[in-house]
Task: structure prediction
Amino acid sequence: MRALVTGGAGFIGSNLVDFLIRKDAEVVVLDNLVTGKRENLHPSATFIEGDVTALSDARKAVTGCDIIFHLAACRAVLQSIDNPLISNETNVTGTLNMLIAARDEGAQRFILASSSSVYGGAEELPTPESAPLYPRSPYAVSKLAAEHYCRVFWEIYGLETVVLRYFNVYGPRQRPDSQYAAVIPLFIRCLLSQESPIIYGDGRQSRDFTYIEDTVQANFLAATTPTSDCAGEIFNIACGEVHTLRELLNTLGDILDITPTPHSTDQRPGDIMHSHADIGKSQSRLHYTPKISFRDGLTQTVNWHQEHGNLFSRK
Ligand SMILES: NC(=O)c1ccc[n+]([C@@H]2O[C@H](COP(=O)([O-])OP(=O)(O)OC[C@H]3O[C@@H](n4cnc5c(N)ncnc54)[C@H](O)[C@@H]3O)[C@@H](O)[C@H]2O)c1
Result:
C-alpha cells in the first residue's frame, strides 16, 4: 500500500502513520504544521510541507498513492466559532481539493476523518449513522459538507470514499498546550501540575471516549475492507460506551492517586450534553472492535504525559 496521510504530523494522523509503516506501507505525509509537530513525523515517511487548501500541494502529495487518509483539518469547535472562514477553507475547500486530486491521480480509496459533531446532540442514544443531523457549529457544518462531497465523488466519479465519524479520540500525542485543547489532555495537565481543572457546565455531560489505537484500527479497516462493504458509506468510530466528565476526572485522579478539585463554570457555546455511538454498522461491515478499555487507555495516556510534559509550552 502506498498511502497519503494528510494531517500526518498531528495527533491522530501521526499515530496512523506509525501504524501503517509497521504494516510495511509506503507513507507520504502532507501537513502545514499549523497544529502538527515535526517531532511526530515518522523518519520513514516522505514529508511534504504543504497546505490542503492549495490544489497544487494536494496534487503533488497524492501522486502515486492508492489510499488517501484525509485527516488535515481545523479540528476545534471553538476555533470555528471564532473564525468560521478558516474552518470552512481548511475543512471544506481542503477536502474538495484532496478529492479532486485523488480522482485525477487515479487513487483507489479516500477515507475522511469526520466527526460525531454532525449529529449535534442526537436524541437517539446510542446514535446510529442514520440519525438526523443537526450541526451546531461552523466546524460541524464543515465536516458535514465534506461528508457530502465524499458521497458525491463516489456516486459521480467512482472514487471509493469512506467516511469515519470519530467520537472524542484521546491518547498519546494529544496535546494540552493550545487554547483549543481537548478535555482529556487538559485535565491530565491540570492534575499533574496540581491545578484545579475547569468543568464547563455541571460535569454530567457524557462522551464516548475512543482510544487512539481503536481509531487507527478503524482507519486501516476502512482501507482494506472490500469495496462492496464500505464504498460511499459512513461509519461511527467510537468505543460504544459513555462516561461523564466527572467520571473521567475521578478515574484520572484514581490513576494518579490525586483527589481532583474541579472548578465549575458556564457551559460553552456549541457544547452538547450527551454523545454515545451505535457502532453496530462498523462492527458488522468493517469488523471493527474497540479493544482498549477506558481505564487502560487513560493509564497509557497519563504515562505519555508524564514522559513528555516537558514538550508543552504554557499558553
Ligand atoms: N481528536 C478528536 O477527538 C477528533 C474527533 C472528531 C474528528 N476529528 C478529526 O480528526 C482529524 C485529526 O484531528 P487531530 O485531533 O489529530 O487534530 P490535530 O490538530 O492534531 O491534527 C490536524 C493536522 O492537520 C494539519 N493541518 C491543519 N490544517 C492544514 C492544512 N490547511 N493543510 C495541511 N495540514 C493541515 C495540522 O498541522 C495537524 O497536523 C481532523 O480532521 C479532526 O477534525 C478529531
User: Anything to note?
Assistant: The pocket of nicotinamide-adenine-dinucleotide is lined by residues 6-7, 9-13, 30-36, 51-53, 71-75, 90, 94, 113, 115, 166, 168-169, 182 (CB under 6 Å).
